[in-house]
Structures are given as structure tokens and as C-alpha cells.
Amino acid sequence: MAAGREFRDIIAGAQRDIDNARIPIESPEGDITITFGGNGAIADSTFSDDVLDKYRGDELSEMLTVMCELGYEKVGQHIDEAAAVALSSWQSGSGA
């Protein structure tokens, strides 16, 4: 029973880490920031006042697409790291 509770606590900790993650992705010039939550959803974004004047048409959409791709990649890496920490913790404890 104790091992089961320990495992549950380790998994709950990893889930909290993922849920609370905030992963900011900034444009090359720093005028756009998209912040992703651990679930992959956009949690926040900021745009400079002149972003629509600075990036025209497809240029803006392409930049946002690249930023989102990078954000999703970083979210996936964060989830992988949280799972690896949980597994390592479990293996180094009484679980393995």
C-alpha cells in the first residue's frame, strides 16, 4: 500500500508540474511572445503595438506558425522531462 501511495504522489507531482508549466516563445525581434501551458494550449500572448505594421500578410502568419510549432515542441520536451523525473524518482525509491 505504501508503495502505491508513493507512486500516486510521484505521478501527482509530475502532473502538477505539467499543469503549472508556462513556456514562453519569443519572436526573433522580441515583439511577440506566445506563452504555452503544459497542456499545449496558449495561455497568454503579447504583441507590440506596431506588429501589424511591421509584419505584412503571410510574413506574420508564417512567424506565428513557426512560434507555435516551437512552443508545441517545447511543451512536449517539458512533458517528457517531467515523466523522466517521475520515473527516476520511482526507480530510485522503493518502486522498482
Total number of β-strand segments? Answer: 3
Provide the succession of SSEs: HEEEHH
Uncertain runs: none
Average pLDDT value? 91
Distance between the termini: 15 Å
Evaluate the radius of gyration: 18 Å
Going across the biggest sheet, name each strand in turn. Answer: 1-2-3
Largest sheet: 3 strands, antiparallel
* Oligomer status: single chain
Task: Explain what this protein looks like in three dimensions.
With 96 residues, the chain is an alpha+beta fold. It has helices at residues 2-20, 51-54, 58-92; strands spanning 22-26, 32-37, 42-47. A three-stranded antiparallel sheet has the order 1-2-3. The protein is rod-shaped. The relative contact order is 0.19. The mean pLDDT is 91.
Short note summarizing the structure:
With 96 residues, this protein is an alpha+beta fold. Helices cover 60% and strands 18% of the residues.
Question: Main traits of this protein?
Answer:
alpha+beta; three-stranded antiparallel β-sheet; rod-shaped
Q: Which helices and strands, and how do they pair?
A:
Layout lengths: L1 H19 L1 E5 L5 E6 L4 E6 L3 H4 L3 H35 L4
Antiparallel strand pairs: 1-2, 2-3
Helix pairs in contact: 1-3
